[in-house]
Amino acid sequence: MPVINIRNFLFFYGPFVDQHCCTVAGGLLPPARHICQYYYYRPLGAATRARCINEPTGDVDAMYYMGESERRQNMMGLTTKAMEWYLKAAEQGDPYAMLRLFQGGACIGGKCPEGSDDWREAALDITLPKAEAGDPEAMLAMYYIYANLDASRLTSIYNLVGIPTRASKWLKRAAEAGLPEAQTRWGRHIMNGRGWYFTQSRRLEAAESWFSRAAEQGYVPAMEQMDYVNREQQDFEESWRWRQQASNSGNIDSRLGVGWCYLDPSHDEEWCSNEQDKTKGWAILYAMSHELGGKGAEDIMEWNQEELTADQKLEAEVLAEVEWIGRQPPLSNFPRRFGF
Fold first, then answer.
1. How many Å is the maximal CA-CA distance in the chain?
2. With contact defined as beta carbons under 8 Å apart, do 107 and 98 qualify?
3. Arithmetic mean of pLDDT, 37-46
4. Coil, helix or strand for 270?
5. How far is the C-alpha of 100 from the C-alpha of 71, rounded, in Å?
6. pLDDT for position 18
7. Would you give the DSSP letter of residue 52?
8. Which of 31, 42, 201, 263 yields a CA-CA distance of 20 to 30 A from 24?
9. Does residue 50 surpass a pLDDT of 70?
10. Cα radius of gyration rounded to whole Å, the chain
């Protein structure tokens, strides 16, 4: 089994770490520090699923995501366990861990960076030289650092009217440097009203150009945005193409949309530019219900349960077992490293 980075594993395996944990952990990190703790990307729900952990000695990404997992399992609060993991990551120079410590008020509890009383400034000091040297990941981190340093009502007004702020300048630099997460976020800023465009069509075209760059690099959240922006431009065939690509790449919402469109394209005839295939649609939704639980896929199946015979449902369930359950890459919500 190839060795893969813990951040990539957590990013792609989302809600399925309980299934893959003990079999995949050995391939994540050197044997002395096997770790398998997932970062579940829903506010509540199954956030306390399986954990099989040995101390993640030395892996900064693992430490940060351990903190994220603890925080998200406790209503976004900086618990003692979360703070311990963030502090370990911060000691290794992780700027996002430092920002979490600032947001959680760690200094109020006496956990401040050495020689400083502001975790934001500590993150700035360690990240700025890397960003100025041309590191796109550091440029993106600078966006979040300045967003925290400069947070104010005035900054919000600047963002609304399109006046560049220190944060937005670094985000754009990261996007121009080719970082797909930054390109997608910059495109979303444009979609949400950032900058001046004479018409909505020009705004959509500008956003699409950034989403396209990121999507062509295989960045799944950008594929989802390509689906959305093409739908807004009334190009439903292109929207459907990107929805299928995002689904095949593991995006949960896109997979749900594809399954629904196959099962019942009449629910949105513009959005669903495909031919109906009830068996395939039921198979996709059945697999999602099996793997994820929750109400989304199950609700759609319940609304359409009279549309298939018992034999058709059985055929679909067999198809789900063969083609959709356990399909790679696993389903994920593909969140940002520094989300909510």
1. 70
2. no
3. 32
4. coil
5. 10
6. 34
7. E
8. 42
9. no
10. 22
Give the C-alpha separation, 118 to 282, whole Å. Answer: 53
Strand, coil or helix: 36: strand
The amino acid present at 256, given as its one-letter code, is L
Query: Which amino acid is it at 216?
Result: E
Strand, helix or coil for residue 35? strand
Q: What is residue 151's predicted lDDT score, i.e. its pLDDT?
A: 75
pLDDT in tens, 100-138: 999 998 888 888 998 888 999 999 999 999 999 999 999
How far apart, in whole angstroms, are the C-alpha atoms of residue 127 and residue 85?
20
- pTM across the whole model: 0.81
Contacts of residue 49, defined as CB under 8 A and 6 or more positions apart, other chains included, come to: 15, 17, 18, 38, 40
CA 101, distance to chain mean position in Å, is 21
Placement of tokens 């093409």 in the chain: 230
Instruction: Tell me if residue 294 falls in helix, strand or coil.
Output: coil
Beta bridge partners of 332: 251
Q: Render pLDDT for 68-82 as a digit per residue (tens, 0 to 9).
A: 988 888 877 888 899
